[in-house]
Every structure is written in C-alpha cells, then in structure tokens.
Structures
1.
Amino acid sequence: MKLLLVEDDALLGDGVRAGLKQAGFAVDWVQDGLAAKLALTTEDYALLVLDLGLPKLSGMELLNFVRVKQTKLPVLILTARDTVADRVTGLNAGADDYLLKPFDLDELIARLNALLRRSVGQVDLTLQHGAVELTPASHQVRLAGKTISLSAREFSLLHTLLLHTGRVHSREQLEQHLYGWGEEVESNAIEVHVHHLRKKLGTDLIRTLRGVGYVIDKVA
Ligand code: CA
C-alpha cells in the first residue's frame, strides 16, 4: 500500500516514514508542497498524509489541488493548530480525517487503515477470503485460524490484492504499491513474494494471468 507523506519537519517525517514502513506501507516522503504536487501528478497513491504548514505551497492549497484532480484519494491532515476553525476548514476542503501534533504513531496507523477500508467500501475490520483472514490493524494473517508469519512486503501485497478482489494488478502496479522511491526493486521481486505467499497460504489463492498480472478472485 503506497502512500505519500508530506511533512517538512525532518525529524518527524523521518520517524513517521520509518514507522509506516514497519507497518507495511510503502512510503514516499516529500518535504514541501511543490514536490508533493509533482509526486501526485506522476505517481499513484492509496493515501495522502498531509502536513498543513508547508513551504512553497501550503497544505490547504495542495488539498484543493488533490480534490480537483483525484476526488477519491483519502487524505489525512496533520496539524499543530488546535482550533476548531482550522479543523472545520480542513474537513470542508475535503480532508477525510485529521490528527493533531504531537500524535501517537499507532493511532496514525489505525486511522490510515480505517481510511483505506472506507475508500474501498470495506467496513469489516478483517478481510476474509476462504480460510484466509487478514487484519490490517494488528498486522495479522491467519489461515484456518492459525497465525501465519509474513514479511512486511508479503503482507502489503496480500493486503492490496484482498482489498480489490477480482481486479488484476500488473507487476508494475504491485511494485508501485510495495516500494517507495529509491528502494531497489529486484526484477523478479513480485514473483518471489507471490511464491512465498503461495507456500504459506496455499497455491490457489493468488492466480497468475500470464503476461498480465496477478489477481485474487472474488469468492463465489
Ligand atoms: Ca510543517
């Protein structure tokens, strides 16, 4: 699950990026409004985490840009301004949620997972497919009730496919979801992750469409 983090505070941005990566998100981090605008026009993100006070282009201007361009991208605002007026302005401008600084990283992760579920119309806390269950909040995967240990990227890949059952994802799309900028992607990385998932969860969960991509079929 790839998200764009826009935060000009280097210490905070670095900490949040590390925490979100550990939680299985692929994170692109930019530190000003213009870089964020460029990233949003060239990349495909599942989530936007946006600081309001930014150099070059303010978070609010960026939010307006996002809402004109991509109306469905879920946006969580980070703000240090604890006034009702600011929150109302942000939510009215199209933000889906907000967190006041300083915030707890676990709370940010929980809120982001909730936004992801809402953005695909998924309200259950656990995604279920046959005997496979995935719970984003606790980062857990179970097979027939038994907890299965997955790497962060295996988890993220499974999460992406389970959120959009029936939709075929190309290898390039999955790489985009799983890796942030500057992260080395081995040419067969996705194949390797899929191979591991099949070993752990069964061979018929993820279907390969040769030359096209991967899909988890909807449960009939
Ligand atoms: Ca700031």
Note: The chain has two domains: 2-119, 127-215.
2.
Amino acid sequence: MVEESAERKVYFKTFGCQMNEYDTGKMHAQLLRDGWAVTTDPADAQLIVVNTCSIREKAVDKMHSALGEYRRMKREGQDVVIGIAGCVAQERGDELYKKYRDVDLVFGPDGVPQIGKLVAEARQGRRVLDTEFLDLENYPFIQDIDPSAHGVGSFVTIQKGCDNKCTFCIVPYTRGVEVSRPHQEILEEVRGLVARGVREITLIGQNVNSYGLKVDGELTFAQLLYAVAEVPGVDRIRYTTSHPRDMGDDVVQAYRDLPNLTSHLHLPVQSGSNKVLRRMKRYYTRERYMRVVDALREARPDIALSTDFIVGFNDEFEEDFEATMSLLNEVGFVGSFSFKYSPRPGTPALKIRNPVTPEEASRRLTVLQDRQRELSTDFNRSHEGRVVEVLVEGPSRHDEGVICGRTSSNVMVNFPGDASLIGSMVDVRVTRGFTHSCRGERVV
Ligand code: 5AD
Ligand code: SF4
C-alpha cells in the first residue's frame, strides 16, 4: 500500500479525434517508463494533461471549462502540474501560456515524443512552452504500445500531419505537414498489439490514402493494407480518414482481395454541391465521389458507407444544401458526422464573408440529421432476421448480462451473453434494428 501512495499519478483529459486518443495513449506509455501511473480521478493526480482539439470552436470551449475546473483544484491547494497538449496548445500556445499563469506546461502534438523531458522540466518549477514542429527527417513516431490498449481493437498511426489545405480546416496548421511512418514500424506495432490480444486494427492518419507517396521506396497505402492483412492474428482492418480525391483503384481492389478488410468505409464528402466543394478546395466533384462509391460497391457489394458533412459553409445557398441532401439520399449513408461550419483562425475560408446565418445553419443541420437518423434506422432494420458475425468487444453499457460487438459493416449489436466471449467472433441473429444499434440473440 505504501508503494501505491508513493506512486506519481497522471490524469489525462482527451478531447477530439482518434489521433488525439492515440497521442494520449503514447503519452501514457512514455510516462509509465518514468514511473507514472494513470488515475481516473483528477483530484488524485500530481500531473493533469489536457489533450485539446481545435477543429471547431465548441471543442475549444470544452477545453476552457475543463481547464477552469483543474485550475480551481490547484488554487484550492492540490499540488499538481497542469499541462495543455494537442491542437489548441499548438495554435494558441503563446496566448494560453500568458493567460493561465498557473498552467505549467503547454505543448503541441509534436511535443508528444518528448513528454518525459517536458514534464521533468515543469516539475522542477520551470514553466514550459513548446510549440516547435519537429524535424521531418526521422520523425520520432513512438513505438511504445499504449498500456491501456488491451481491448479487442486498437488504433495504429501511419502518418502525422496533412498536406491538404481544405479551406475550412485548421489541421494542417496544428499538426503540420504530412509525414509517413515507416511501414516496418507500423507492422511491428501491429504485431505487438496482436500479441496482447488485439484482433481489430484501425490504421489512422489525417489522409491515409496519400501514405508513403512522398518517400522513395515506401509502400503505398494499398500495399500497406495487404501487408497488415498478412500479419497473423489480424482478423479485421479498418482505417480512417480517407480523402475521396486520393481513393485509388488499388485500394478499391483491396476490397476484392482482402477478406479481413472490413465492409465499412468512412469517406468524408463534406458537401454535395460542386460549387461548395470548389470553395472548400476539396479537389473532387460530386460526380467523381459517386464514381468512387460505385467502384467500391462493385468490389464489395455489402460495403457500408459513412461520411462527414459541413453545413452553412461560406456561400452555401439553399440549392447547395439541397444538393447535399440529394447526395445523402443517393449514397444512402449508414451514418454521418455533421457539423455547422465553424470559422477557424488562420484558415483561408476565414477571410470570406459568410452570408449563412447561424439560425439557418442550425436549421439545415437539423434537416440533415433527421434524414440521417431515418437512413441509419433503415439500415439497422435491414438486418432484422439475418445472422451476422460479431466481434465481441465488451459488456453493454446499459444492460447487465448483455454484451456487444460490431459487424464488419460497423453495426453495433447487443445480445445476451457472457463476458468470456469478449474477443471472439460469434454468430448473432438480429432481432431488432434501432437508430444506433441492433439487438440480437447468439446462434449456437
Ligand atoms: N467547421 C466545421 N466542421 C469542420 N470539420 C473540419 N473543420 C471544420 C470546421 N472549420 C469537420 C469536417 C471533417 C471533420 C473531422 O470535421 O467535416 O471531416
Ligand atoms: Fe483537414 Fe482536409 Fe486535411 Fe482532412 S484532409 S485534415 S479536412 S485539411
């Protein structure tokens, strides 16, 4: 017990995308080596790291309120080092550092590989601000496996940064230029995860389709998929995020060749209007997007497609929004993340006056989300009566004695069962489809 209380504890609060979750895991892995343990209670921590997201203003607001809480705890006497990490730290590091004098440590995504050193400095009483981007040559992707990665599925990063300049997006400014992680390192991490019992690998990057293209002799993204698929024990491969412009025939072919590549693809379209797509600098048209969809469906007839939409972008007229709605229906997306356009500091679109009022943007968002709910429900209901293969992930969050997992098409299925089934692939007959999940019974 004595050792337990002598342990230094870190509390992580993570906002944002999978990349941030993954970065938190890597910070955890590195701090573990320096003798830190993770706690789920901020009041119990000697170090609090807030990993922030700046993709929309709402995410930034959430960071400020979380931070307010931790700073209050410190004011009231908790002996704790507070760090702000991630995209807001990168973008507004200076401002945060000056504004919050009781925050000890501010560092961007490129600070993740050096967290041990940064924390040590801060613990010696020095305030630290580090928002330098690292050298692109030999970029230090962290090999240590996230100690909490013991579930059924795990993320593996394949690249950092983004070379696209979609006019609404802050990511290229917070995460810097694109760097591909050497495939040998990726495969080593995949093997390490499989050895710990992970069965589903999700390859992550800001624009995975351009993986390896800038490096002589590196695999292409499609070749990487084949290489990961060959690792013994990898039952399922997912990946995110894809850019429709870069979705090549070789990746489409992988859906014919690789049974462990899942029948689900998240392919952000943003808008169904060519005018809006042009203003976003997405470099594809609606027609090109539909050609990719058709090719994917030819290669893998049961592929389920999900997407991201932005509504109320600069100069999105009613007819442009109608085009988005018609695309939603034409593709029949099984799910989507949809957002009101949020002007971001430093991005090209910021300079353009936006005539779409916030009220109108909210209305459009509601219309879109209502229709999406119908489509998602239809899709889930289409499973009723069918037997599907489910990779069991864990206990259901709501019901005792019920476990849940996903199909290859990413449908969440809840069914009565024992926790001993976690990690196995089981056949389940779907009895009911709802908006976000299905219910079923195990077939034995
Ligand atoms: N406003 C609203 N949504 C945005 N996204 C990215 N930038 C913005 C912004 N400025 C959305 C896009 C992207 C997803 C990750 O977040 O739809 O695909
Ligand atoms: Fe942002 Fe576009 Fe890069 Fe995605 S592809 S991270 S939307 S700039």
Note: Residues 153-381 form a domain with the pyruvate-formate lyase- activating enzyme fold (CATH 3.80.30.20).
